[in-house]
Write a structure and sequence with these properties.
Order of helices and strands: EEEEHHEEEEHEEEHHH
Number of strands: 11
Distance between the termini: 29 Å
Structural class: alpha/beta
Largest sheet: 4 strands, mixed
Oligomer: single chain
Strand order of the largest sheet: 1-2-4-3
Strand content: 15-25%
Radius of gyration: 20 Å
Helix content: 25-40%
Amino acid sequence: MARAPADADLPAYTVRESRRAKRARIDVSAAGRVEVVVPAGFPQRKVPKLIAENRQWLERALERVRQRQAERPELHQRLPERIRLAALDLEWPVAYPGTGKAGVRESSDGQLRVHAPDRRGARDALCNWVTRTAKAHLVPWAGAVGKELGLTAGTIRVRAQASRWGSCSGRGNLNLNRNLLFLAPEVVRYLLVHELAHTVHMDHSPKFWALVAHLEPDYRHLDHQLRGAGGHVPVWALADRLLPPDFFDESGTHPLAGV
């Protein structure tokens, strides 16, 4: 990944080459990070022109990020004071003692206690905890939905995916995004139905969508919700390359700031 040189006339951005990309595109993360994704061999000198040509769209996208930050400031904290996993209808207050063996532990009073020496360590500990929690819940959930629908998946894995909520391989193995835990349960179930349907039809053909409609009649509404669900994921839980460049800057008033 390359960082663009400073240019007062253009928003800050990074450039990432992707073997899967067929054309250049501009992505704006929920944290407001601008990334230009280009196919292998794309001339880097063309990137500033691409940004300039799409400047109005980009400024509108960044303004939407700022509006979401104002509407839901708790989702944009560098380290959370509370964590809510909507998919499981569970919520915890979070404390940062800063001492003890690194990791996240639930105290007898239902508080999550994050032991880490600094912000980076605390964030990593929280992400690892989300991943463990997701594995404990999403894997059996997918198995139960598959049994209900009469569809069998292969291996089910949970990962910190940057751009997909889930995927299904040609062998019927599922990859699920750990951050599904922050979404509404009906949306998570739809994602599981969607990926399980791919064990029958690997593409998005009319036959695939007909099967999805049979399995989940309200799929259009749920699919629309899923496509806009990224705004429900707190910034600290995003994949590393989606974080703002200064995310681990220790300035601020949080208890771990400056430790």
